[in-house]
Carbohydrate ABC transporter substrate-binding protein (Streptomyces dengpaensis), 441 residues
Amino acid sequence: MMRPRTTLLASCTALALALGATACGGGPVAAGGGDKELSGQTITVAGVWSGSEQKNFQKVLDAFTEKTGAKTQFTSTGDNVSTVVGSKIEGGNAPDVVMVPQVGVLQQFAKEGWLKPLSKTAEQSVDTNYASVWKNYGSVDGALYGLYFKAAHKSTVWYSPDALDQAGVKPPTTYDAMLKAGHTVSESGLAAFSVAGQDGWTLTDWFENIYLSQAGPEKYDALAAHKIKWTDPTVVEALTTLGKLFKDKQLIAGGQKEALNTDFPGSVEKVFGPEPAAGMVYEGDFVAGVAKDQFGKKIGEDANFFPFPPVGAGKAPVVSGGDAAVVLKDGKNQKAAMRFLEYLATPEASAVWAEAGGFLSPNKELDLASYGDDVTRETAKSLVAAGDSVRFDMSDQAPAAFGGTKGAGEWKILQDFLRDPSDPKATAGELEKAAAKTYQG
C-alpha cells in the first residue's frame, strides 16, 4: 500500500502557491503570481489513458485545479491518438493539451504545424530537471514541443522469486547467464519465459533491448532514424540472438505456437497467476501493476525484477517509452494549457502520481521517497541514473505504419519470425522492405 503523504503535499502546495514557486524543495522561488491565477478557465486534455491510469492522472489534474483554480476535462482517445486528434482539429474542437505516447506521433504533429513550442519557463524546467535525452525526444528541428511527464522502463525482466528459489538460481547478470538460468528453471518443472507473441509490440521490445546492448547506442539511433538499413549486419546479429531464444522450446512456455496466442496480460498471468506456467516474463515496469492489481502479488516479495542483462560484450540496455504533453495551436486556451505544462515539469506534479502508483517519472528532481514501494523506487532510480544513455523505444520513433500497427510492419514481421526464426537474414530483408516503404511515405 502507498504511504499517505497528503499533509506534506498540501503544505508543499500551499507554500508553492504563496510564493509562486515552480517546485517544492530547494530551488529558488520567484515572487508574484496570484493564488488561483486561472480561476474561471477550463483546460481540455486528451490522452490514451483509461482505467486506473486515467484515475491516477485525474489526481494530477485535481492538484493543478487546487493550485491554480483552472478546471480540467480529460478525454481518453484510445490507442489511435493521431486519428482522434486530427479529426478533433478538423471539427474545430481541438483539445488544449494532448499526452502523446510516441515520438513518431509527436514529430508528425509538429510537422503538421499543430503544436506550440514550450514556454521559456517550461524549457528551463526541462533543462534543470531532466537528462538532455528527454529534451531531444521532445524536440523537432531544434524547437521543444513535448514535455515527457510519464515514462516506462522497458529493460526489466520480472520473475517469481519462488520459481527461481525452487530452481536454485539467482537473478542473472548477463544474457547468456539468463538463458542458462532459464534452462535450470525449466528442468525444475516450469518454462523459463512467458512470451506475449500475440501482441507484436512486446517482440519489438525484445529486439530493441538485444540490439541496443549488442550494437550500441549510435547504431540504435541510426536504425531508429532509418539512416542505416534493416539489412545491416548488426540487425541480422540481433535477430540471430533473439532467434535462439524463440526456437528453444525449453525456454518458452507452450513453445512458439502458444506464445503467438498469448497477449501481454496473459503473459503476466502465466508467471503470477493462480496456475503458473513460467518463472519469468520480460516486459516493462508496468508488469508490476498487472501482477499487483489482477493477481494480488506483493511487489518485492511475490514478484520482483532484474535489469535486462547485457548481451555479449555490450552494456546493459535501458530502453524507455513515455508520454509527452504538448499544447495544440488550435486549442481554445493556450495560455492556461502552457501553464499546465509548466506545472507538469515540476517534481511536485510527478509526486502526485508517484504516490498513487503505476508511474515512473524521468524528472530527476523527484524525491524517490514519493514512490510507494522499494521495487518501484529501484526501477525509477535505474531509469534516472541511466541519464543520457536511455534510448526511447525504437518502434515508437518509427512511422506508425511500420512500428505501431497491429498485423502490419515490424509487429507482423517479428510475429512471423517468432513462428519461424530459422532465417534471420530473410527477416531483416522483410523489415527493410517494410521500413523503406513507410519512411519514404
